[in-house]
Amino acid sequence: MIDRIVTGSRGQASVLATNKVIRNTYVLLSLTLAFSALTAGMSMALGLPHPGLILTLVGYFGLLFLVTKLRNSSAGILAVFALTGFMGYTLGPILSAYLALPNGSQIVMQAMGGTAAIFLGLSGYALTSRKDFSFMGGFLMVGILVAFLAGLAAVFFQMPALSLAVSAMFVLLMSGFILWETSNIIHGGETNYIMATVSLYVSIYNLFTSLLHLLGVFNNE
């Protein structure tokens, strides 16, 4: 009887801890998305140039390393805002370029709507069904590495067809990553809401930019 009570208490504590991680993750994610949108807007308003591929990668991985190092302290939250603010800044010039096109505003709105629909739909499914998608982890990591290297090759060798294929791959991979990460939080695989926030933010960012590229091509822009 005592063992049953102890087991039940532990289970309840685990559920409460998981719910806390989910709540903190989505609160921080909402704030970072808003901050990222703000820095993107400022970048557009000031007409700032894109930092380029090399500086973007250095800034991203450098700030990601900082977030990882500070993930268990309050300073980690500031590092998350630094990372997402930087990514928002890099997004500003991209949005400016699309908005300058004849159908630019429509393409951007479609990409935003598609990103929101995919994220909310997949996150909602993972949260309500509570299915374990941990089996997808290895496949997603390999797929993201292959897509990343293919994306670099498309840029350096100027291969538009490969770039288009990479964008399509990223839409599928980031959709799967949203399912996997949300499931990871639910089942206790990820207990740090700072790292969970960064993972979901990066998925949303890549999903949006990939949809933006695909929609631009489909609209002959």
Defining traits:
single chain; 221 residues; mainly alpha; globular
Order of helices and strands: HHHHHHH
Largest sheet data: none
The chain-level mean pLDDT equals 88
* Low-confidence blocks of residues: 5-11
Helix vs. strand class: mainly alpha
**Share of residues in helices:** over 70%
Q: How many DSSP H or I helices?
A: 7
Instruction: Evaluate the radius of gyration.
Output: 19 Å
How many strand units? 0
Question: What is the general shape?
Answer: globular
> Roughly how many Å apart are the termini?
69 Å
Subunit arrangement of the protein: single chain
The number of domains: 1
Q: Layout of SSEs?
A:
Elements: H1 2-46, H2 53-69, H3 75-99, H4 104-129, H5 137-156, H6 160-186, H7 193-218
Helix pairs in contact: 1-3, 1-7, 2-3, 3-4, 3-7, 4-6, 4-7, 5-6, 6-7
Describe this structure in words.
The chain has 221 residues and is mainly alpha-helical. The chain has one domain. It is built from seven helices and no strands. α5 packs antiparallel against α6. The radius of gyration is 19 Å and the shape is globular. Mean pLDDT is 88; it is low at 5-11.
